[in-house]
Amino acid sequence: MFSKLRIGSKKRVDSSSHPNGANFLSLPAELRNNIYECVLEDTATLTMVPRKAFIKPKPPAMLLVSRQVRAEYQPILLTRARIVANVYNYDFRDISSVVSSLYPTQLKLLRLNNTLVIKLHCLRCRPQDLDLLRRWLVKRADPLDRLSWSYEVGWSRITVALSAKPDMLVGHLEMLNDMKTRSRLDERVAWEMLPIQDCIRQELETVQQELANSALQT
C-alpha cells in the first residue's frame, strides 16, 4: 500500500472530471474534504506490506484518481485510517524497511495517527526470534522513532485450536520475562516491551473467557 504513496513523476490520466463537463475538483474545498471523510469511513483498514511482498492489497482508489486528489486525500488517509502491519515471530524488519522508505512529510502525518496497529502472529519463539525482537525494542527506545504503534495478537496464518492457545500465549509470556531478566535490558528498552506483554496477556484473558463460555454451553 505504501509504495503507491511514493508515485511522483509518472503521468496520469485525470479521471476527476466527468465526460459531461462536471469536475470534482471544481467543487469547494470544504465539500471535497467532506467527501474524503465519507470515503475514509468506508476504508476500514489499510495493510502495510513490504515492497517485495508477492501479494499486495489494492491501494485506496482515491490515491489513483489524480495528483491533486491524491495530494488532498493522502494527509487525511495517513492521519485517520487504521493501518495494520502483520509481524510473524517477532520479525519487525519489514516494518522498519517500509517506514524508512517514506518521505518525511508522510512520516510527519503518520505520527499524528493513533490507530497504527502491529498484529503479532506468535507462532514460535526461538532465540533468533528474540534477537529480532530485541533489535525492534532498541529501535523503539530511540526518541526519534515515535510512531504510535499499538499491538494486537493475530492468528491468521495458521489454524490454532482454541484449547491450544492458552499454552502458546503463556509460553510467549514466560520467554519474554526470561529475556528481560537474562538480557538485563536497558530500562528504556524494557519499557518498550511492556505493551507487547500487555497485549499477549489481554489475548490470554480473552481466550480463557471464550473457553469458559464454551464449557458453560456444553
What would you say this structure looks like, in words?
There is one protein chain. The protein has helices at residues 29-42, 67-80, 93-100, 104-110, 127-141, 165-183, 187-217, and strands at 46-48, 83-88, 116-121, 149-154. With 218 residues, the chain is α/β, with parallel strands linked by helices. The chain has a four-stranded parallel β-sheet with strand order 1-2-3-4. Helix 5 (127-141) links the parallel strand 3 and strand 4 (149-154). Helix 1 (29-42) crosses helix 2 (67-80) and helix 6 packs antiparallel against helix 7. The chain is globular. The N and C termini lie far apart (44 Å).
Helix-strand layout with pairing:
Layout: H1 29-42, E1 46-48, H2 67-80, E2 83-88, H3 93-100, H4 104-110, E3 116-121, H5 127-141, E4 149-154, H6 165-183, H7 187-217
Parallel strand pairs: 1-2, 2-3, 3-4
Helix pairs in contact: 1-2, 5-7, 6-7
Protein name: F-box domain-containing protein
Organism: Peltaster fructicola
Quick rundown:
This protein has helices at residues 29-42, 67-80, 93-100, 104-110, 127-141, 165-183, 187-217, and strands spanning 46-48, 83-88, 116-121, 149-154.
- Give the termini separation: 44 Å
Report the sheet with the most strands, covering strand number, pairing sense and barrel closure.
Answer: 4 strands, parallel
Give me the oligomer status. Answer: single chain
Count the beta strands: 4
Poorly predicted runs of 5 or more residues: 6-13
Major sheet: arrangement of strands: 1-2-3-4
SSE pattern, N- to C-terminal:
HEHEHHEHEHH
